[in-house]
Amino acid sequence: MIAAEDVVLILLAAGRSQRFGIPNKLEVPFLNKPVGLHVVTAFEAIPFRDRLVVTDGCTLDFASHGYAVVHNDDPAAGMAQSVKLGVQRAKDDGAQAVLIALADMPRVTAAHVYRMLDAADSADAVVASSDGVKPSPSPCSPATGSTSCCRSTAMRARAIWCARGGTW
Asked: How far, in Å, CA of 36 to CA of 82, rounded?
């Protein structure tokens, strides 16, 4: 098990919304709030060490919810670019573990995150959650020092993954 207090949350919010057909699906209202703020609300009581959001200019005010904003100047490079930017920032801030979540998952819950943290059973554990068919982004461990470990991102992303490494 890894404690939430030891984990930096990286929220990915720099997608291109191509399949959605509008400029930014995160800003679309869903159950009386923008899609992109549902995860923020669901995770607000989890005592993460820090919270980062990787965005490409979305108008949602993540900073007012306690997130440090990391700008992705090249969202066309895909999710791997956002993962790389978020993990690098977490590493620069001295993080020992990260949890990567997607901002377009309005139904994810804090209980889901705690189950994943409970499943991390060693210093180099990688825990992935998916629909059982399409795990994306590809899980990898930052313990290897690689920031290009999540190359297979063509599938529609529907996963949260947690990675912990004592040395990055």
From this structure: 16
